[in-house]
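Record type: monomer structure entry
Structure origin: computed from sequence
Chain ID: A
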Amino acid sequence: MSELVALLGHPVAHSRSPRMQNAAFAARGLAWEYVALDVLPERLEEAVRGLAAQGFRGANVTAPHKAGVAQIVGSELPSVNTLVIRNGSFEAYSTDTAVLEGVTADRPVIIGDGGAAAAFRQALPHARVFSRRTEWPPDARDADLVVNATPVRDEVLVELGPGQTLVDLPYPRTATADAAEANGARVLDGLEVLVAQGAASFELWTGVPAPVAVMRRALGLSA
């Protein structure tokens, strides 16, 4: 019988995490299975409690539930994207910012105000933050790092160039990422973000090193 890990979100049909994580489990010879669960906001607490009751080993959490799950499990984190379940108890983590390893961020800018943006705000407390509810449009002229933590795909939110890095969370790739790359900026797009956070989650659940090359290939990225 497989050990189960869930993805909690709404919607989740577009997610490529099941393909990536199931390829990783197979590569490590683990009898584990990753399943996507579309959970309405009003059913979130029931779903989270149900994971422990049904013997799940862990979960990923995606929009719009990251802040809600943090509250449900009593985490001090503002945003949770990974749960490890041991003996019916929850351990809460955020691996959303794993992609920042090795990235210089002296003058970071974060665009967005959702759960993922909250995780990056905690990791980059000196960042300037822009959102349509606070300050708009974003000003990234002096930024060395820009994190696009919005769901916007078709609008160029900010123009970047050489010497700047864009961490672009949505996938498929956004107009902002395409424009940044065309102008000479370094781009870490949504699939790169997915691999980094997914590898960190995999290791938290299993205690086994993540097969990153396998995970990248499962997403169509070069190993």
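Annotation 1: The radius of gyration is 17 Å.
Annotation 2: The chain has a mean pLDDT of 97.
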